[in-house]
Amino acid sequence: MDEVQKTFREIAERYDRYRRKLIPCFDGFYRTVVDMAPFAPGDVFRVLDLGAGTGLLSQFLYERFPNAQYTLIDFTAEMLEKAKQRFATGGNFRYQVANYAEADWKGPYELIVSSLSIHHLEDAAKKALYGKIRENLASGGWFINAEFVRFASPELQDRHWNLWIQSMRDAGLNDQEVGEALERTKIDILAPVELQTGWLRELGFEEVDCYYRSGLFAVFGGKNV
Question: Can you tell me the distance from the alpha carbon of 113 to that of 144, in angstroms, rounded to the nearest whole number?
Answer without folding.
Answer: 5
